[in-house]
Amino acid sequence: MPDQPRTSVVRRLGGLLKEELPALSVGTVLLVAGAALSLVYPQGIRLIVDGAIAGEDPRAVTRAAGVLAVIAIVQGLAVAGRHLLFSLAGERGVRRVRERLYRSLLDQEIGFFDSSRTGELISRLGTDSATIQSLVAANVSMVFRHVITALGGIALLFVTSPRLTVVMLLVVPPIAVGSVIYGRKVRALARRYQDALADASHVAEESLSSMRTVRAFNAEPAERGRYDAAIAASYDAARRRARAGSLFMGGASAGVYLAIAAVLGYGGKLVARGDLTAGALTAFLVYTLLIAMSLGSLADLWAEAMKGIGAAERVFALMDRVPAMPVAGGLRPARCEGRIAFDRVRFSYPARPDVEVLGGIDLHIAPGEVVALVGPSGSGKSTMAALLGRLYDPVAGRITLDGHDLRTLDPTWLRAQIGVVPQEPTLFSASVEENVRYGRPDATHEEVVAACRAAHADIFVRGFPEGYATRVGERGQQLSGGQRQRLAIARAVLKDPRILLLDEATSALDSESEALVKDALARLMTGRTTVIIAHRLSTVASADRVVVIEGGIIVESGPHRELVARGGLYQRLVERQLRAG
Fold this sequence. Notes:
- By secondary structure, the chain is an alpha/beta fold.
- It has 2 domains: 6-320, ABC transporter transmembrane region fold; 340-580, 3-Layer(aba) Sandwich (Rossmann fold), CATH 3.40.50.300.
- The chain contains 20 helices and 10 strands.
- Helix 2 (21-54) runs antiparallel to helix 10 (278-320) and helix 7 (172-208) crosses helix 10.
- 35% of the residues are buried.
């Protein structure tokens, strides 16, 4: 994803806050008021110091102190209001960024996720978005505040003592130049750090989400090593960033204190000669400190701004990415008969374009026909199912449904016609009922129960303490493999599709459960076009036709008995399974 011009990124960040103009306008007024009041404060100090030294009426000094107290309270209220308004505006703006980014991610084609790491995408939603929030909320308001304070302070310094001001300003150009150089360097270093942190997050997410596998293979030391290596890389990037920051901050700090020393030395001479009052020198020192703190903060904010712009570049690049395959839009036929045709279909996965998975598939399936796809692992069976659901498009050839090229059909309409029962069902960390209803959110409770009964899942669901309200845990880990598979079948039953894709739908079931589910599937398949991917002979034998795939091409096709009698690859697969049994 190429970087966007910085001006374009800044313009878009500003666009995020257009809807917040009323709040930001009030916040800006409070910001100016707070900054102005902070500039008034040193003048009060001047009056108090000069009054005390001159021996004026103590009540006048007390009144001046009282005025300063009132100013402090009013300024505090202005700062609180400014902070609240800018913070809420930033939060709302970043909420919109996260919503749009998440929508964009959901709209991307499956090939995008094949070549992207989940941890990195989560980092864009979390870490990068938080960095943007800091930029558009706190940092923007703080920049305005410090700029007003610095410029106003310099103007008042000239009013107080032009000669002292010239001395103080001798250190400003080096600080300004250093800020620019430091900001550019930090931007590159911060990007490397964020990328390294995303790598570490990906490793952690992958390990923690597969803890059963990690534990089964005693792979904890290996996973610790992977994570430690990733964290070490992020630490290395952070260390380089810290070194650059420490050099600059040390130089800036030395410059500030040199300025104070110069002001005290030269200012003391002016007071001794009577060219400047002690109160004016005190006020000058306070202004100098205010300006120094503002300039130092601006340097930090510049570095943070560069980090925020770097994060925004990555987020906007994802938001602007145009999916290679649309999520919706196209033909929506009035009905679906279920006639499927693969015409000279060739396919390679986008992440591995040099490896051809399907080498010219020709297959026609009649409406209501039950076709079983069999063959060695990696032969292309599941790939054909993925192409039929249009998770990918063929590299060459075409796939049609009722004569319509899948590329011309509305993907949402197409997938509404297809029910999928995968080999490894995916359940969400929600209740049983919510998982079954996932493919048809408007289904009633009674329809969910009927679907579970049809899939022979109602028996074990009612045995749970909370019944259909029982939460299944992350990825359904609180259920057995057979229970997860039966809920996936219930989900397909509830969807009531025209086409069924069964990818090893009974692989995780014991013989008793398999018999029950096969009975449910037999009723479900009646009148529907069904594609079965299976190895079990009991599942394949009942199909109208068996299609044998090897090396991405169809090598045999026909009824089970005919293929067994023919003595080809299918017979060898059957004999191998019988020997294994």
